[in-house]
Amino acid sequence: MALKIRLARGGSKKRPHYSIVVADSRMPRDGRFIEKIGTYNPLLPKDSPDRVKMDVDRAKHWIEHGAQVTDRVSRFLESSGDIEKKERHNYKKGTPGKKAQERAKEREAKAAEVASADAE
């Protein structure tokens, strides 16, 4: 059985509240799970201690037994210092799009023209 530690969504529309659960990966996101090990409330401020509550010992237990951790839950565990931080690469996310690059080139060309006109 392929186990995952993941988020299960609860709460009403536009008011999300998540449970951190250990579930079989074949089950639906909000469906059957094996154990609930914590909660996550994204509506609370980032520095609030109630934003993420997790039983870290149980999470470590399930990881030792082969459970895979989703990206969001791994970030929670990394921020608490319980698992080592893994390197993520998303090189294209920080680069501007094609149109923004073209506008930047146009601005540079105009600035060069103004600078050469002022120099003369």
Automatic annotation (TrEMBL):
One GO MF term: structural constituent of ribosome
Disordered: region residues: 80-120
Source domain of life: Bacteria
Pfam families: Ribosomal_S16
GO cellular component: cytoplasm; small ribosomal subunit
Protein's UniProt keywords contain tRNA-binding: no
Biological processes, Gene Ontology terms: translation
Biased composition (Basic and acidic residues): 99-111
Keywords from the named record: Ribonucleoprotein, Ribosomal protein
NCBIfam families in alphabetical order: S16
Record HAMAP family: Ribosomal_bS16
Family: Belongs to the bacterial ribosomal protein bS16 family.
Protein's name according to its UniProt entry: Small ribosomal subunit protein bS16
Native organism taxonomy: Bacteria, Pseudomonadati, Pseudomonadota, Alphaproteobacteria, Rhodobacterales
